[in-house]
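Hi there,

I know you've been waiting on this one. I reran it after we fixed the sequence typo, so this is the corrected version. Both the input and the resulting structure follow.
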Amino acid sequence: MIDKEALIKLKQIEYAIVPGTLLTDEPLLKPEYYFHSDQFEEDGYYFLYVIGVRGAGKTVDGLTWLKNNGDGIMVRRTDPEFEIMLEEINNPFNPMIKLGMISAARIKKTRTKLYMMYIIENESSEERFICEGVALNTFASTRSADFSFAKNIFWDEFIKQPDQKEFKAEGSAWLNMLETIARSKHHINVRAYANSNDIYNPVFKELRVINQLERLLDAAQHETQVYKDPKRHIKIVLYKPTKEFEIFKSALALHDLTEGTQYADMAYNNQFTANDFSDCDYRNIKGYRPYFGIDDYTIFKHKGSKDIYVSYANADCFRYYSKFPLDQENLRNKYYNIIRNRWLGRHIVFESYDIKRRMLELFKLI
């Protein structure tokens, strides 16, 4: 049963469903207070990425979108994430059934590791197919399958959790999947949702949007922020949930248990807790001289101290390119000791988190 204090919080929400109104001992929130992607739909933007707090209804929204539009594919990062869905208790459609949005759902696995998903909308309707499911890490083995029917792709949880491993070339694997499915179509529609586990994830790295998203992070704590690139048809949403949803979550015992933890910052405050944004700041390069360059950024040394500043500012100096293994080896042989010592001594400042991760990974310091 719900304790008195939690019940008082829930009654602040005009349309909360509390025990006694349904055949359940658990409180529910009306669907209108969860995440809905249709508010972010806009002509010309075919690729919608959403980062949002846990439990905000992102999975339900994606499955509803596939149900309403058909011709769909659901994607998860790895095949075990689909395998577990075969158990009735882990069926991703269960929240939709609980809220009365559909009557029943089932998932059937094929020999080729495709997952066929069916629903029954109400008691008077027949079962119908709504989408295929396929894992990104096994998609290459299913490329001979016919995906010509697909026009809509929903990728649920495109950012790995901290306890999961990134697989090789994950970002490019995603783009290869889109190319295989799209073929000669003018466009396909994509919805990709995740929690705020890591801004420096393979997809955002591949799309080269991390630096742009960094600029929105502070404001995203107070209201939803949207990054748009009309030329590339991309829209990325840092979603701030409704006030009703925040009140609802604050009434749950897990919220009290995790208050003040990194988990709470990620799950309830939509903060990228896996990312250390310290030592990231903009500085005027006056008083610094170029040392060497890597790809699109330059390492500057301060003339009167040990300080190093790493910036997107262009400069006339020798430049290395990380795509070449020989450049990587020469770079580490020549500069590893000085970069390591300056880093450990807190004498390096980076213009952006994107540069910080790229450089420190290149020097194998993280």
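Quick highlight: The chain is about 30% helix and 20% strand.

Best,
R. S.
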